[in-house]
Amino acid sequence: MSAKTRVPTAINGGPYGQAWSAKADCLQSITGLILGVFLLFHMHFEASILLGKETFFHMVQFLEGSMFSSTDHGFPIVTKIISVIMLVIVAVHAATALRRFPTQLGQWRAMRGFMSSIKHKDTQLWFWQMITGFLLFFLVSAHLATMILNPEIGPHLSAERVYHDNAWLLYVVFLPIVLFHGIVGLYRVILKWGVSSNRPLIRTIAHVLIVYLLCLGTLSLVTYINIGMELVLPVQPFIPN
């Protein structure tokens, strides 16, 4: 047997290849689960602005460790550290997912032909999750890079970033893509690891969650834009009463 035929066998069909594939599957699911759960919490944290500037301000201070500060103010470095950690998790998740990404024109044609002949909902979801995952690698990286370089968060500072720095242009595209990818990812993890076998129920819950979070995120974004429109430059940090 030539080296040309021996290498693919060792990588794809041999024990080492199978062991790596199993570990990569597990790692992809774990990182995807972490990112999906983080997305759920993050969406509701951002939506606290709907309850008023003071509510959002105190939420930020609490999450940044205000209970450990003598001034009752949080530490922005906490946001930076969390952003770095999430960026690492995103990179690991992307690396383990890329092994399933078609890299040749023939693979794309075969996949599209298969999807055209077999109308399977989960296969369609997997395809669009793959596309959104590719887009998110750039969108999430841009979002997290912003938070790492400028971790200051607050009703006025966040609104300034959204409106005056035109971050809303990113978020309008980012929001539906990350929600679809994240919730469908959680749906697939639940089914893959046998948490539930009730596929129709889990799919319905996923659809409801996507619509609910899309409405919640849109309202939050509009609120930040409205606050930003009222701000006078240079923007001063919000000070609660």
In short:
The chain has 241 residues and is mostly helical. The protein has helices at 3-13, 15-46, 53-63, 76-97, 105-117, 121-149, 155-164, 168-192, 199-230.
What does this structure look like?
- By secondary structure, the chain is mainly α.
- It has a single domain (22-230), classed as Fumarate reductase/succinate dehydrogenase, transmembrane subunit (3 helical TM bundles of succinate and fumarate reductases, Up-down Bundle).
- It has nine helices and no strands.
- α1 (3-13) packs across α2 and α2 crosses α8 (168-192).
- It is elongated, with a radius of gyration of 21 Å.
- The termini are far apart.
- The relative contact order is 0.12.
- Mean pLDDT is 87; it is low at 1-12.
- GO terms for molecular function: metal ion binding.
- One of its GO terms (cellular component) is membrane.
- Keywords: Heme, Iron, Membrane, Metal-binding, Transmembrane, Transmembrane helix.
- This is Fumarate reductase cytochrome b subunit.
